[in-house]
Amino acid sequence: MPERKPKFAGMKTKREKRRIARDYAREAIRWEGDKKQKPLAKPLTIAPLEERMAALKKGKMVFYDGRERIELDLSRTERKLVGVYKIGNALLTVRVDPHGLMGICEVEKSGQGFLEKPAMQSGFRESYFCAMPDLGHMELQQPLRGHGLGKKAVSRAERHVRAQARGTHSFIAPEKFRPLFEKLGYVKVLTFQRFGKEVHLLEKSGKYREEDNFSTHYGFEAIDPKTGKARMFYFPIGKK
């Protein structure tokens, strides 16, 4: 049924009012600019199939930032590469050690290629996520907050735990972490006091992928050069 026309000149239809409201909202965002919105952590474009398979044989992986070719070691002092993101002009890597501790480093270009600096030396300070069943130790320093990087790292860690736990697991989390995990689909099962602080038993069940296990696969969120869309790429560890 066509929308009824206004009875008097100057009156606006509901559709026109919605359009005006959208225009005001867009104008407000345009004026606010970067005052409220921080740039989000964005995945890089992964190399085409032939190039990334050649790099994989050398224990490396290749990404592109525009035309800039970025080649990184998959393993560095036993810390495996599980993420590469760009925030503004900063290029960051996420690595995990044999104990499941995920750390963030800043990448700098040098005459020898690209070097990763420990966060303590880069101005970001140290930020960690523990990919253990309780996902309990998470610390993201202030310069890295508000860009979505924490959510990406925690999501990667929880997928690893779900792969090891065959799809279902629960753990106890402090109140300050509850909103983050609820965004990731966790459900609060129980609330109680521990050492004078409120904590929650959180649970999540669902499908899982064997490839999300850090101990058996490398996995990166990256832009697919064929489609221009972000997806996960997996590579078995030890495959040459």
Mind explaining what this structure looks like?
The chain contains 5 helices and 16 strands. The protein has 240 residues and is of the alpha+beta class. It has 2 domains: 38-164 and 211-236, no CATH class; 168-205.
Proportion of beta-strand residues: 35-45%
Note the main sheet: 8 strands, antiparallel
* Average of per-residue pLDDT values: 79
Number of domains: 2
List keywords for this structure.
2 domains, 16 strands, 5 helices, 240 residues, 3-stranded antiparallel beta sheet, alpha+beta, globular
Write the layout of secondary structure elements.
Elements: H1 14-32, E1 42-43, E2 45-46, H2 49-57, E3 60-65, E4 68-73, E5 75-76, E6 79-87, E7 90-96, E8 101-110, E9 113-118, H3 119-122, E10 128-130, E11 138-139, H4 149-164, E12 168-174, H5 178-183, E13 187-194, E14 197-205, E15 217-223, E16 230-236
Antiparallel strand pairs: 1-6, 2-3, 3-4, 5-6, 6-7, 7-8, 8-9, 8-10, 10-11, 12-14, 13-14, 15-16
